[in-house]
User: What shape does this take?
Amino acid sequence: MGKSLVIVESPSKASIINRYLGDNYIVKASVGHIRDLASAAAQKDSKTEKKKLSKEESLALTMGVNPKNHWKANYEIMPDKHKVVAELKKLAKDADKIYLATDLDREGEAIAWHLKEVLGGKDEKYFRVKYPEITKAAIDKAFANPGKINMDLVNAQQTRRFLDRVVGFMVSPLLWKKVARGLSAGRVQSVAVELIVDKEREIKSFIPEEYWNIDAMVSNSANEQFKLSVTNKGSKKFNASNKDEAYSAVETLKSSKFTVDNIETKKGKQSPLPPFTTSTLQQAANIRLGFSVKKTMMVAQHLYEMGLITYMRTDSVNLSDEAIANARTIIENECGKNYLPEKPNYYKSKESAQEAHEAIRPSHPLDPLPANVDRDGQRLFALIKARYLASQMVAQEYETTNVSVKASDYTLKISGKHIIFDGFKRIYNLNKNEEVLLPELKVGDVLCLDEIIPSQHFTQPPARFSEATLVKELEKDGIGRPSTYASIISTIQERGYVNIVSGRFYAMRMGEIVTDRLRFSFKDLMDKNFTASMEDSLDEIADGKIDWINSLDKFYSSFEKELTEAQKPFDDGGMPENSPLEIKNFKCPECKKFNMAVQSGKTGMFLSCLGFYDKSVKKVQDRCHKTLNLRSLDISSLNKSNLTDEEEANILRSRPRCEKCHSVMDSYIIDEKHKLHLCSTPNCGGYLMETGVFDSEIEKGPEIPCEKCGSTMVLKEGRFGKYMACTNKDCGNTRKILKNGQVAPPKEDPVDLPELECKAPGAHYVLRDGASGLFLAAHNFPKVRETRPPKVLELLRFKDRISPKFHYLCDAPAYDADGNETEVRFSRKSKKQYVMSLDANGKNTSFVAFYNEDEKKWEIQESASKTSTKKTTKSSTAKKSTTKKTAGKKAAK
Assistant: This one.
């Protein structure tokens, strides 16, 4: 018998499973999806070079799927997967059986189906295996009971993919036409942006109200001091809305006797939480570890592929009998029998739970964590294990005490909490300082007043979304699924619609503009209930309850009508255009004929002369093109890493309010004499022009000499952010401002190297100096997008052409000890160039060399990633480092 081929998704998973299965199996990785809906460019090149297409055919070609032809899809091998597919085809041809062992969710099922479709052969040859964890027992069980591909799950995945493709490819061009070029829309992402936009508007329309708290420091007979808070005046809640009311209460309290009126003690219990699902893990890791949702899923994926945790995409809170037994053993051994409930704790999964497998838990809870797990993996694993164990422990028992004190007609209160038995919180405690002990008190005790403390406060706007609270809101509304939250949050940031500062979401102005346009024209698409119902439909398709084509047709029928209406002019009911906002009485400083207007684009906001739209001047190039920068003073661009909710509220109170809608206004500096305040709600159009002297509010920034002409370079702000510009207009030199606020080092001019040909015919390399050091790029970039690191031999060959500041790179080792050529790389951590080598297969070797600036020599050491069990090799100079130096000189010549 021949060997069986097993295909998994990741290489790390392949190596572990290969050990479990033995020599009769060949385990290979597809590295995720191998094919996707075809791109328009690829199809045009192969099928429609000279054929004239109808509008419907052209649209279907662009999307890779045809809604008007029973959703016929055109799939193609992904560009970077041709080599993988070729290898899998060769192995599949010789294999007796092919086991598709991809992940057990919809995406995994779809990958398995695509593999089967591409590799071909008889159906009897293919088997689908699923396993909730990568352990020998789970793998053996899965391969002993293989099944077939579940086409209901595949069709649910295709439905989601087709819906997203249709919305993205049909709505985005409309946004380009009506709003600005380069914008995009997504079926689920747009609703997530809407949540953040609505929160932003709640915050900016919130009008703070003043209120005062009054606290009293008192002591008992044992001279133990504690703080009381005023809660009531008579039978009503105490409410002081200004200083006069507060100080009136203070004067009364100063002359009053403080007597303990009531002491109420209650016992309570707090039950343990269920083990983690995907969304609860994302929330807990964000709150407790500071992980983004994307990072949480990446780390969890790595732990799963190492065989350390069960599958991390799950809605289930169930645990297997074996997992419960293991948890109880650990709890009894580490905590004692009194921490174990008489019977195991069972939890009920919600009705919409996708998978029938377990909650997220350790695969081998009785074993120690391997030493090769990195710090992030250790922290996330510890969190998962703690929650898993805590779910099988007894409740925490506590006692709360509420004390009421009378002073005249005022009631003051204090609460305490005493932990009787810590229970599950011995292992999993979110709030370690929750115990508040009160001094000994009894009813009738007279307390000594030490101090009255009045304090002014203002009501706070709603809290901004963090990643944890956004995930919670998405899950509550049924928008998306936990497995998609990471991609949703990443996508809406990449599109520039929202921004995260200090872990909190801010809606960008373009995000608000796009949300308003989509809400106007696509009521179904932007309706949370409709989006949630689509997710339910996907669940029903996965369960085989409804037909996927009918579900797609139903969606497209409604969507097409809304799209057709949206494409009309605004006067006919179409989507509103993103028209410039004219600032009256602010003439263009160049033509002095037209007013300036606020333009909103994908890259930000700026002022432009309305003369650009002067149709009496027929040639566009003859119209006025004057523009002015708007430098934002808005809270979302303060970039303060420690900005608190109260500090933000104070900034909001300091901003002017729009006369039209009373929302807070965003402030922008135009120049030393003009400041513009714009309503934070784009649809409102309210603005206020302020004149005065604003030199102190303009960020002066650093001043440095220009490396090209010697003149002074000063800080400027353009459509793409801040940069340094030479004051000599004839020079025109600019330099970037890095993310850390430092001015980027000067760049050397490109060096043309026609002798170095690219892989693409007709193109050759140019040596460029970029933000990430030296690199080779095609001379006709971006037509040919070919780049690579330069080899040390190549720098040595062209040493006479490159800048002297890079000559030290020519002295680097040209070969490693095994004769592999070295190339120049850039370390983002140290911000320095170094050299490394690759073997014959193009994989990194353990050879790395760094330049010692103090000693002016190259030092060789082995890569840390390759030497987990070896010590770093002894440093030596470049002259002693290679046995190939003579050969290097010959090659250079």
